[in-house]
Design brief:
mainly alpha, 2 helices, 0% strand
């Protein structure tokens, strides 16, 4: 795993937590922000995947 994959996964997990906390307390803004972080994290993970492919690690 490279830095982008690790950071992306962390953002994705953090976003899931934020979304669930927002659901629990009824805060729609926190839910939206959590979903946004998840999307950002998934994109960053894919960037890391592409970097691995280009470097021949996959």
């Amino acid at each position: 795993m490279n830095d982008d994959q690790i950071k992306g996964k962390a953002k994705d997990v953090g976003g899931k937590i934020q979304e669930k906390v927002g659901e629990a307390v009824g805060n729609r803004q926190a839910q939206r922000e959590g979903l946004s972080k998840q999307a950002e994290g998934k994109v960053q993970e894919k960037v890391g995947d592409v970097k691995d492919i280009v470097k021949g690690k996959r």
